[in-house]
Write a structure and sequence with these properties.
heterodimer, A: mainly alpha, two-stranded antiparallel ribbon, about 50% helix, elongated, B: alpha+beta, 6-stranded mixed β-barrel, 6-stranded mixed beta sheet, 28 helices, 22 strands, globular
Chain lengths: ~110, ~900
């Protein structure tokens, strides 16, 4: 369990990759996270998370065909593995079960 | 240099990224960041994109886990290396104060070195960017003395020289003559005063100026065409294409149109031939009779380029008698004047190679030496910190050394370890130092009057040299711990019987040396400041307060002064108005150089109006003032200075004729002396006072207008002067300065040096104190038991602190003793530049010593007082 734990930022990265559907590479992940979180996301954080997620077996990757937008260089495309999906699922279940018992303070309702 | 039209990621950041040797994501990250840069550039602009690029690179560097990246862990050497790194980083982290002192001190030292390296590099590579620099020469005149030795060189040459040379002497491929002048320039808006150069059409064949647009062959072939630099094009035409546009230049008394036929991109600033606006020399005002074929008027600088394969020595022979053949009369004149025998040459032409011109005749290499000396001194102080602190800490590291030796380390391995540590710290300091240097670059540029920049990649020498500094510093700083620490015997260190507490002779002499260097710089600062203060407060013998000074640029001064007097002369805020030829306070002399009784006298001539003596508040000591109603006074009367009378041996000068000037030939020859004014410092204080006279003769022009105003309503009065000016001279904007400020500009160079030395002494004393602080901390902690016992026996806090302070005060005193004679010598040499200067007194030395002593005592008092106040129970209770 502890080895499979997802950090908050790692969770976001995984979700971003899942949503990008075969177009997930470093720059697109960074861009989509910036749009969704509305904060600037540093590349250093992206690389560390990708490295850790790969080590935990939550990500698989392969090199793409060379693309024009990177000056004829190929890029590494990331995909969420089954283990990654189940880790996301697990985190989500924990959250949802917690949400269910969350009581809003009266004034907010 | 940032290209505004096509921004690229910051180069230093990119380099830092590439430095990630074994990092898995390295190549990918480079591409990623490039792509992101482009995205951000198009969305948010270049500033944002660059800032984010930096942020990303830094985030990558701070988040990387270094040890995991080295995948050599299976090899034994590398795991040893890993261990060294680990130990180094641990000891850096554990002792934050020492790490800070070492890293920060070295960073400042290295930053200084980096800046001064840039300065020296620019000086040494002057004109080297011209591809043909080895074939380009300036043709100069060389004058000889009676014994055939060189009396001096003249850089200007006559107009017909260059074409005649090319015609008669084989091997000359091209030539260009040059003259530079200030002209008013305008396109649509208000006129601006610009430096304008005139040159021959072949200039682009000779010098490597990058012509962005226009044809180098024909760009300057017409007298109404102009070649400008990119900056000038942007200034006058904005983003429009400047080619085909026209620009108005006021060469003489009216504006003329010039067609832009070429635009030159930016070129290195270290070029002897520099221009903003270039016109054809055929349109220059003196490129016509009678000057055009006069061999005795030296008006233009002349550059020639030899053909490839032609050696400069091949030209020596035809050049030797060139002057004699074409301008023999002039040599004859010189022979008579200097009594040179007939069979000997009085003057000739010679070739000065372009790469030598700057250092030999424009700038003095001594400046590069002085600056390098200062930088090395500061770096040395930082290195000494490193050494003394590692000696002080060696008792802590000695156990590690013992342990390593017991386990089987060889001495050379330990040396490798300690030197490695030094290199690592130097590496960190270098990165910090470069950042510091980048931060200080604008300040340094304004101080040195240059526009330097770090080009890490265009110029490999910059990079290699910075790396070289780092290696040398690491080697010097690490030498003591590497050699001494590695020599410890394991048995003594492990038993704990080794005693090293940072108070041996070696350490002491290093600290004394640090203070000697600091004191030297502080004494220099004090003397320089004092001299500049002396210049400012010197009573010059005339009054320059609230005088507005307006150069008239070939307008008639008498006429303008009259116009002004009628228009605003009676205004309550205007004290007086006068027109003069030259203004006071210049360096050198302006007038005649005449021989009198076998000596050359520089007679300075002031072309003035009749109210000049009253205006400047000079004292008339004999004779009378000029009389505006007397017709003869406007041309045939002069008023001399006391020095003039003395130099020419005139005991009763009134009524005499001016000596040494020939009537008919010299415009002021034959004039009668009607009065004498008290000596006043009309030249700068660099010069011994020359003889001078005032004349109303307008032969040399009244080129400047002086207006003394009342200080109360300065702004309004100047606005009013401006309005009046615009009604009289609508085509030229008013260009005014305050006379006292303008005069002080003569000393700007020395003012800059004083500031550089001042900054250096601040940094030097700061780094030295950092080291002192570290050393005191070590000494106190190693003698803390002794302090405890002394306190038990009844010593007071003051006694304890003075116990420690005494040692260090001794070192400071030794430093002062070493520094004083050296500083005295150096500052005396500097003061020799000034004809009028202060003398260095004991006050400078005492003040400098007191400053250093107080700073040093304040630094150590933190620790010594703390030591004195410790409770002996705490320190004595352990073991």
């Amino acid at each position: 369990m502890s080895k499979r734990k997802l950090g908050e930022f790692e969770e976001l990265v995984l979700l971003a990759i899942g949503g990008l559907d075969y177009e997930a590479y470093t720059v697109s992940i960074q861009q989509i996270l910036e749009v969704h979180t509305n904060r600037s996301v540093s590349m250093g954080a992206i690389y560390t998370s990708l490295e850790r997620l790969s080590k935990k077996g939550f990500l698989s990757s392969k090199m793409s065909e060379p693309t024009a937008e990177r000056g004829g260089k190929s890029k590494r495309i990331y995909q969420v593995t089954y283990a990654g999906e189940s880790a996301l699922q697990e985190t989500r279940m924990i959250r949802e079960s917690l949400w269910k018992q969350f009581s809003w303070s009266p004034s907010w309702v | 240099m940032i290209d505004k039209h096509n921004p690229t990621p910051p180069k230093l950041a990119k380099f830092l990224l590439i430095l990630s040797v074994a990092w898995k994501f390295k190549e990918e990250a480079e591409n990623d960041l490039d792509e992101l840069f482009r995205i951000r550039l198009s969305n948010h602009g270049s500033a944002y994109a660059r800032a984010q690029y930096w942020k990303d690179v830094l985030s990558i560097w701070t988040r990387r886990s270094w040890f995991e990246e080295f995948e050599f862990t299976n090899l034994n050497t590398y795991s040893m290396f890993k261990n060294y790194m680990k130990v180094t980083i641990r000891s850096l982290r554990k002792q934050k104060v020492y790490s800070f002192i070492n890293v920060f001190g070295l960073a400042i030292g290295l930053a200084f070195c980096a800046l001064i390296f840039l300065y020296v590099q620019e000086e040494l590579t002057y004109d080297r960017f011209h591809e043909n620099n080895d074939r380009i020469f300036r043709v100069e005149q060389r004058y000889f003395d009676t014994d055939g030795s060189v009396r001096g060189d003249g850089v200007n040459a006559s107009i017909p020289l260059a074409p005649t040379l090319k015609e008669e002497i084989p091997g000359i491929e091209a030539y260009t003559r040059e003259r530079r002048l200030f002209h008013y320039v305008k396109s649509d808006n208000e006129a601006i005063r610009e430096l304008v150069n005139y040159a021959d059409a072949d200039i682009f064949k000779i010098f490597s100026f990058p012509l962005i647009s226009g044809d180098p062959e024909t760009a300057l072939s017409n007298t109404n065409s102009a070649v400008i630099t990119e900056e000038i094009a942007f200034k006058y035409f904005g983003k429009r294409n400047a080619i085909g546009e026209s620009i108005k230049i006021r060469k003489q008394e009216s504006y003329e149109d010039f067609l832009i036929t070429g635009v030159v991109g930016s070129y290195p600033k270290n070029s002897t031939f520099r221009f903003n606006i270039l016109l054809s020399i055929k349109g220059e005002s003196r490129y016509q009779p009678p000057f055009i074929d006069r061999w005795d008027m030296n008006l233009y600088k002349t550059y020639i380029m030899l053909e490839e394969q032609v050696d400069a020595t091949q030209l020596e022979e035809p050049l030797a008698d060139f002057r004699e053949r074409h301008n023999g009369d002039y040599n004859q004149v010189l022979r008579e004047r200097y009594e040179i025998p007939d069979n000997q040459l009085a003057s000739t032409y010679h070739l000065n190679p372009l790469p030598d011109i700057h250092l030999n005749s424009v700038s003095d290499p001594i400046y590069s030496f002085i600056l390098s000396g200062i930088a090395i001194a500061i770096l040395l102080i930082a290195c000494i910190n490193f050494m003394t602190l590692s000696i002080g800490r060696s008792s802590k590291r000695s156990k590690e050394v013992g342990m390593r030796k017991v386990v089987g380390a060889f001495r050379h391995q330990l040396m490798f370890q300690f030197w490695g540590e030094a290199f690592l710290i130097c590496g960190i300091s270098m990165i910090l130092g470069i950042l510091l240097a980048e931060g200080f670059l604008p300040v340094f540029n304004s101080l040195s009057g240059k526009t330097l920049a770090f080009n890490y990649f265009e110029n490999w020498t910059t990079f290699a040299s910075l790396f070289g500094f780092m290696v040398i510093t690491g080697f010097v700083a690490g030498s003591y711990p590497a050699v001494i620490l590695s020599s410890f015997k394991p048995i003594t260190t492990l038993k704990g019987s080794l005693k090293l507490n940072g108070s041996n002779y070696f350490t002491k002499s290093l600290v004394a040396l640090q203070f000697a260097l600091s004191v030297m710089l502080i004494i220099s600062t004090l003397v320089m400041k004092n001299q500049l203060q002396f210049i400012r407060s010197q009573d010059l013998g005339y009054n320059t307060e609230h005088v507005v000074y307006i150069p008239l640029n070939e307008l008639d001064g008498l006429e303008i002064a009259d116009d002004f007097r009628t228009a605003i002369g009676g205004h309550a805020d205007i004290v007086d108005i006068t027109a003069t030829g030259v203004t006071v306070g210049f360096k050198g002399s302006y007038g005649y150089g005449k021989e009198y009784n076998g000596e050359i006298k520089n007679i300075n001539v002031f072309t003035v109006e009749s109210n000049y003596i009253d205006f400047m508040e000079l004292d008339l000591v004999a004779g009378r003032n000029f009389n505006p109603n007397l017709a003869t006074d406007s041309s045939e009367s002069i008023i001399i200075t006391e020095t003039f009378a003395r130099e020419f041996g005139l005991n009763d000068p009134i009524g005499e004729q001016v000596p040494a000037l020939t009537p008919g030939e010299d415009p002021h020859g034959g004039a009668i002396i009607v009065g004498m004014v008290k000596d006043h410092y009309f030249q700068s204080l660099y010069d011994e006072m020359d003889p001078a006279f005032l004349t109303m003769n307008s032969a040399w022009g009244h080129g400047n207008l002086l207006i003394r105003i009342r200080p109360e309503k300065m702004q309004e009065t100047i606005a009013m002067i401006k309005d009046t000016w615009n009604t009289f001279v609508p085509e030229i904007p008013l260009n005014y300065r305050f006379l006292d400020e303008d005069m002080y500009q003569e000393y700007a160079n020395d003012e800059r040096w004083a500031t550089i030395v001042n900054y250096s002494s601040l940094f030097a004393i700061f780094i030295a104190c950092l080291g002192l602080f570290g050393l005191v901390t070590l000494t106190v902690s190693s003698r803390i038991k002794e302090v405890g016992i002394r306190k038990v026996l009844g010593a007071s806090v003051l006694q304890i602190s003075s116990l420690f302070a005494k040692d260090f005060v001794k070192l400071v005193v030794i430093g002062v003793l070493i520094a004083s004679p050296i500083a005295w010598y150096a500052m005396n040499e500097w003061l020799k530049n000034f004809a009028y200067h202060i003398s260095i007194g004991p006050i400078h030395f005492i003040l400098a010593s007191l400053i250093v002593l107080i700073i040093a005592l304040a630094t150590i008092s933190f620790q010594t007082v703390k030591a004195g106040r410790t409770n002996p129970a705490n320190t004595l209770s352990s073991n």
